[in-house]
Amino acid sequence: MLKICESAVGGILVIDEMYSLAGKGENDFGTEALETLLKFMEDNRDKIVVIGCGYTKEMQNLIDTNSGLRSRFSNFIDFENYTPEQCLQILDKMISKYNIKISDDKQRKVLLDFFGTADNDSNFANARAVRNLQEYIIAIQSTRLGAKLDSNSDNESEEKSDSSSKSVTKKELTTINLSDINEAIERYFSINHKISNGEING
């Protein structure tokens, strides 16, 4: 931590997910890192700006349980979560790099409902959650198309097999099904549930 602080002298040090430094024991690295940070801020108060970022609740808990932080961090800015419509716009942009356009009204409604529901989840991470969902959608689509290719390969020995069915078309590569989206949403909630229960790391 000291080297990181020293490298930011004369500038700005941004610590993302700063609440993760909350110590859980005497030998926890986070406790040592915070103590180093607080001393460095005190000794170099006119030479460095420190910005701590993280979820509102977790950051508030961190500040409330550490008097040193409370005295050194006096300005707070809360950023509202993206609206469901904004999340869908972000997803549109992310998924467009695969030449995929989500234009089906049913698909868009399902996605809007999902973003509205996910926003109430304490683990909802705005654009990162959108990115995760996009990755799940693409992975599920790839698995579905891969299964089709495998199935066609098994039938290659048939004398009158339709050659056009042995490959994946450009349209299929640039199309996602409602089932892809629904499965991606299920995967999102399943993984978040495991994160909340401490079964996996976020």
Label the structural class.
Answer: mainly alpha
Based on CA atoms alone, the radius of gyration comes out at 24 Å
Q: What profile does the largest beta sheet have?
A: 2 strands, parallel
- Architecture of the largest domain, according to CATH? Orthogonal Bundle
The helix/strand series, from N terminus to C terminus, equals HEHEHHHHHHH
Q: Termini separation (Å)? A: 22 Å
What level of helicity do the residues show?
55-70%
Number of helices: 9
Fraction in beta strands: under 5%
Q: What is the level 1 CATH name of the largest domain? A: Mainly Alpha
CATH fold description of the largest domain = Helicase, Ruva Protein, domain 3
How many strands in all?
2
Strand order of the largest sheet: 1-2
Model description:
This protein has nine helices and two strands. The longest helix is centred in the C-terminal third of the chain and has 28 residues, at 127-154. The chain has helices spanning 2-7, 29-43, 56-64, 67-72, 84-95, 105-118, 127-154, 170-173, 178-196; strands spanning 12-15, 49-52. It has a two-stranded parallel sheet with strand order 1-2. It starts with a helix and ends in a 6-residue tail after the last helix. 56% of the residues lie in helices and 4% in strands. The protein folds into two domains: 2-72, no CATH class; 84-196, Helicase, Ruva Protein, domain 3 (Orthogonal Bundle), CATH 1.10.8.60. It is mainly α and 202 residues long. α2 (29-43) links the parallel β1 and β2.
